[in-house]
Automatic annotation (TrEMBL):
Its cofactor is [4Fe-4S] cluster; [2Fe-2S] cluster. InterPro entries: Aldolase_TIM, BATS_dom, Elp3/MiaA/NifB-like_rSAM, FeFe-hyd_HydE_rSAM, HydE/PylB-like, rSAM, rSAM_sf. Its EC number is 2.8.1.6. CDD domains: Radical_SAM. This is Biotin synthase. One of its GO terms (molecular function) is metal ion binding. (3R)-3-methyl-D-ornithine binds at residue 124. Binds 1 [4Fe-4S] cluster. The cluster is coordinated with 3 cysteines and an exchangeable S-adenosyl-L-methionine. [4Fe-4S] cluster binds at residues 49, 53, 56.
């Protein structure tokens, strides 16, 4: 499909065609991954960030955020707990926090790989230079999540005062060249986002051919300039998940926390529209409420201590099976 065909489709989806789109995506997912849903243990290790994205609750200009930074030993403790719970992928996510130097991160990654050689390490730490990306890959990190956020230059520039559109794309290219399994992705329902912008997101994904694709609705955060903007809708986000599955059939696509925040069954609905990964929260309970990218984030209270078991129930009720394996992307496994 070209841009005009995608726009036509997006602007004419009704209840029937939307159902057909989600069914097609579900069939594609069944064909590639079956009913398996991969679990990743998410560790949000620092909410300190030097960037200032307009939508994000941990932007540097938000002086009301309670900041925290986990020590390397505390991150290792989370991995131990996760490993004992059965996780074989750890996603280390943070704001862009230079306190974690290349040396510290390489030491952490090597330590995790030494203790848990059968686990995969995924980084989600934002933009760094090639040298750092290379050293962290050599230390044992095999995957990297860096959403492109939006493929529209106009929107990207309006939302990211401290970053450039070119550099974002350049970082994604580098990660791929270095050899990481790469995750891109975007938000749906950003203020001012049009069908044409969403068409560009899909065409960009097709061109980049990432291993992972993270898609969630934009959700406002009260301490950001976008606090009064409407949230992205569940329906539009499900449509984009389904289309991402059809455009990049072998990708691993998470049913994101933002989907679960937008609707009580948002993650289940995402799984039924082509998603095949969930990322339960493994962060220490004490810091969870502080990692707030948007308002009303789920899984931040005491009742969420073990998201693993909550999600296992939910996934099975939705008709899928939990797979605790590393779950590498088919795309990557078939690379020469
Ligand atoms: N609403 C939805 N998603 C957000 N993210 C950051 N802020 C928000 C928000 N207000 C997403 C970005 C980022 C990912 C970790 O979280 O896409 O890449
Ligand atoms: Fe976190 Fe259900 S997934 S409480």
């Amino acid at each position: 499909m070209d841009s005009e065909e995608i726009i036509l489709l997006l602007e004419n989806l009704g209840p029937d065609s939307r159902g057909r789109l989600h069914t097609l995506a579900h069939q594609k997912r069944m064909d590639r991954y079956g009913t398996k849903v991969y679990l990743r243990g998410l560790i949000e290790f620092s909410n300190i960030c030097k960037q200032n994205c307009l939508y994000c609750g941990i932007r540097s200009a938000n002086k009301s955020a309670a900041r925290y930074r986990l020590q390397l030993e505390e991150i290792m403790d989370c991995c131990q707990e996760g490993y004992d719970l059965g996780y074989r992928t750890f996603v280390l996510q943070s704001g862009e926090d230079d306190w974690y130097t290349t040396d510290k991160l390489a030491q952490l990654i090597a330590g995790i790989k030494r203790s848990y050689p059968d686990a995969a390490v995924t980084l989600s730490i934002g933009e760094r230079d090639d040298e750092t990306y290379t050293r962290l890959f050599e230390a044992g990190a095999e995957r990297f999540l860096l959403r492109h956020e939006t493929a529209s230059r106009r929107l990207y520039e309006a939302l990211h005062p401290t970053m450039t559109f070119e550099n974002r794309r350049d970082r994604l290219r580098s990660l791929k060249t270095i050899g990481y399994q790469v995750g891109a992705g975007f938000m749906v329902g950003l203020p001012g986002q049009t069908s044409q912008d969403l068409a560009e997101d899909l065409l960009y994904l097709k061109e980049l051919n990432p291993d992972m694709i993270g898609i969630g609705p934009f959700l406002p955060h009260q301490a950001t300039p976008l606090k009064d903007e409407p949230a992205g809708t569940l329906e539009a986000t499900l449509d984009m998940i389904a289309l991402a599955r059809l455009f990049v059939p072998d990708a691993l696509i998470p049913a994101t926390t933002a989907m679960g925040t937008a609707h009580p069954y948002g993650r289940e609905l995402a799984l039924q529209a082509g998603a095949n990964v969930v990322m339960p929260n493994l962060s220490p309970l004490a810091v969870r409420p502080k990692y707030t990218l948007y308002d009303n984030k789920i899984c931040t209270g005491d009742e969420s201590a073990q998201c693993r078991f909550c999600l296992e129930q939910r996934i099975e009720t939705a008709g899928f099976r939990v797979d605790m394996g590393r779950g590498d992307s088919l795309n990557w496994l078939s690379r020469p």
